[in-house]
Amino acid sequence: MATSEPRLTVKESLTPSELDDVGALVREARWNQLAADWCIFIEFGRLYAVHSDAGRIIATTATLPYGGRFAWISMVLVAGEDRRRGLGTMMLRRAMADLTAAKLVPALDATPDGRAVYRKLGFEDSWGFQRLIRRERQRAAANVGAPAGITVRPITDADWPALCAYDAAAFGAERSAVLAGLRGRLPAAELVAARANAIAGFVLGRDGGLAAHIGPLIADDDAVACALVARALDGIEGPLFVDLADSKRELRQFLDARGFAAARPFTRMLYGSSVRFDDAARTFAVVGPEFG
């Protein structure tokens, strides 16, 4: 085990060997991220890394700023043999200091174990969501049609400006760059719900190391959300994650009936505040705890 003073750097790119290093951290933790996810942090955020004496990345933390208002902290990973050295806390404090200096409110999604740590650092509970998992496609589920006046169809480039504006109003900040990083990764989940010429909801998704992942899911109401998810489920085989807001009980019942089960809870936490920045009514499923 390394015992020398840790070397913390901010990465502006990742070499192939460093992508291997961070991929190994993800696999050891049994997380879901792929190289494409790390590239989003590198391009639009900041990646902090601790190197071993041999030059390997042994710990990470990432941040993503959103709209000059707040920023996500995630990917707090430490190699098993290097834990209990304070590396995760060191990187977390550095990330928090950099964000507050930039006048951005730090935000994160915490597991039950992480929640206790983050509360001691000044984070407050805002709201909760559950990671649901479907192990395999359920073929017996009944079809769900779109509500009257709603059309559910694949997203086109022509939809994109209005879709991003709709998302920004619901999320609380503009994040079109992150959403663009999801396009093409899970085509069956790239759907928009339209009412006349207006956006009534949308869903995106991505591939992953353990399972495909649907999110974000933003919609005007439960009926639109269920129609979007039903259409997406029809085209996705194999294991699938959805990170569903605890308040969305109707959609939870819909997913339970289609073979989803709870995998783990998360708490959305904000530094120094519990007041959520997003629209609770329209936020059904999040992108994931790494992106918000």
Question: Using DSSP, what is the number of strands?
Answer: 13
How far do the termini sit from each other?
34 Å
- Fraction in helix: 25-40%
Q: What is the rounded Rg?
A: 19 Å
Largest sheet: 13 strands, mixed
Structural class: alpha+beta
Gross morphology is globular
- SS summary, helix count: 8
Describe the overall structure:
With about 290 residues, the protein is of the alpha+beta class. About 30% of the residues lie in helices and about 35% in strands. The protein has 8 helices and 13 strands. The longest helix has 15 residues, at about 85-100. The relative contact order is 0.17.
Core attributes:
13 strands; 13-stranded mixed β-sheet; 29% helix; 292 residues; alpha+beta
Q: Could you provide a short overview of the structure?
A:
This protein has 292 residues and is α+β, with helices and mostly antiparallel strands.
Draw up the topology in text.
Blueprint: E1 7-11, H1 16-29, H2 35-44, E2 46-51, E3 57-66, E4 70-78, H3 87-101, E5 105-110, H4 112-120, E6 123-134, E7 150-154, H5 160-171, H6 176-180, E8 191-195, E9 198-206, E10 212-219, H7 222-234, E11 240-245, H8 249-256, E12 260-271, E13 283-285
Parallel strand pairs: 4-5, 10-11
Antiparallel strand pairs: 1-2, 2-3, 3-4, 5-12, 6-11, 6-12, 7-8, 8-9, 9-10, 10-13
